[in-house]
Amino acid sequence: MKILYIAPLPPPINGHSLVSKEFYDSISAKHNVEVINLRKQSLKEGMDSIQRIVEILKVLARTFFKKSKTDAVYFTISESLAGNLKDVLIYMICFNLLPKMYIHLHGGSLKRLLFDKYPWVFILNRFFIKRVGGVILSGDSHLEIFRDYVDRKKISIIPNFAQDYLFLSEKTIRRKFDQPSPIRLLFISNMIPLKGYLILLEGFLALKADLQKKYVLEFAGRFDTEEERSIFEEKIKGKKNIRYHGLIDDTKKKELFEKAHIFCLPTMFFEGQPISILEAYAAGCAVITTGQSGILDIFTDQVNGFQIRENSPESLTKILSDLLVEQKSLLKIALYNNRSAVEKYRVVTYTSNLKKVIGL
């Protein structure tokens, strides 16, 4: 079976490229998979350089030349205005293949930041999307984007996953919570303000000095510029219990999650479904995060962790203060999260469900 695979593949590694790679790896051995790689090097959205415009033109040309005799099209769609216009051009190039096309939305901002803001963009997209073979979403909260013009039977809900190497045994989780002193906080994501890394830092630094000493705060992820990285490193300079690990590989990620007690993602982004939260579940961590709709598909306050207010360092400071007298609840939450991940958020579950939807 010939599959036109239009999605970002690493490098760089982020949530979007990671899920795309796992699905690609699961089908490439048994099928003829023609890849149109949508990867981009910058963390910024849109066509922010001549280089990016050239990349898009190459994507469109490759799509045109590789589309012949295709049995199915798997296409992960964009949420930026420039990215969406690229998507529309791909729909046009593949117009006769739309009934065989399965579009996969990984984010949660398409309606609010694009369709609601630019009615003409919505009308243009609706014309093509109502003709596709299927729409794939990570959670129920995103149904509102498509349900008024796509038959519900054509919409599939497939949650994301945590990679197998991050799953810890119950024994290992119990051991790391045996004497959680200091309590280890972990942030792993792109180091962009909307992901909340500065909110986390500010909330942590607002703790009284004696309470700060009971925690270690670790950051890992990629900055878009060296200037942003330097500014952050200057903020944490001399603070022995705050560490920035830079861009990390799988070995380092596993090490950090194995030691972490609480994963923190105080995001202000319209999240699709953060893989990092599912990774935290697999590794037996409690989670502190905000109530973005895509997050609430997989997260319940006081069950999976603790929900804080968006853009509120004060909310985070209060939670961290309160947790020092409620440490016993952390192990219960961590074990529950791990069991949930084992049952629902495995790679094989994710790839099997995708294959079933596309008919592979």
Describe the structure.
Keywords: Transferase. This protein has two domains: about 1-160 and about 345-360, Rossmann fold; about 165-345, 3-Layer(aba) Sandwich (Rossmann fold). The chain is about 40% helix and about 15% strand. Helix 11 (about 275-280) links the parallel strand 10 (about 260-265) and strand 11 (about 285-290). It is α/β, with parallel strands linked by helices and about 350 residues long. The chain is built from 15 helices and twelve strands. The protein is globular. Strands 2-1-3-4-5-6 form a six-stranded parallel β-sheet, with helices on both faces. A six-stranded parallel β-sheet has the order 9-8-7-10-11-12, sandwiched between helices.
Q: What is the CATH superfamily of the largest domain?
A: Glycogen Phosphorylase B
CATH class of the largest domain: Alpha Beta
Structural class: alpha/beta
Estimate the strand proportion: 15-25%
Q: Which percent range fits the helix content?
A: 40-55%
Q: How would a crystallographer describe the biggest sheet?
A: 6 strands, parallel
Kindly give the count of domains: 2
GO molecular function, one term: glycosyltransferase activity
Keywords: Transferase
Pfam families: Glycos_transf_1
Protein name: Glycosyl transferase family 1 domain-containing protein
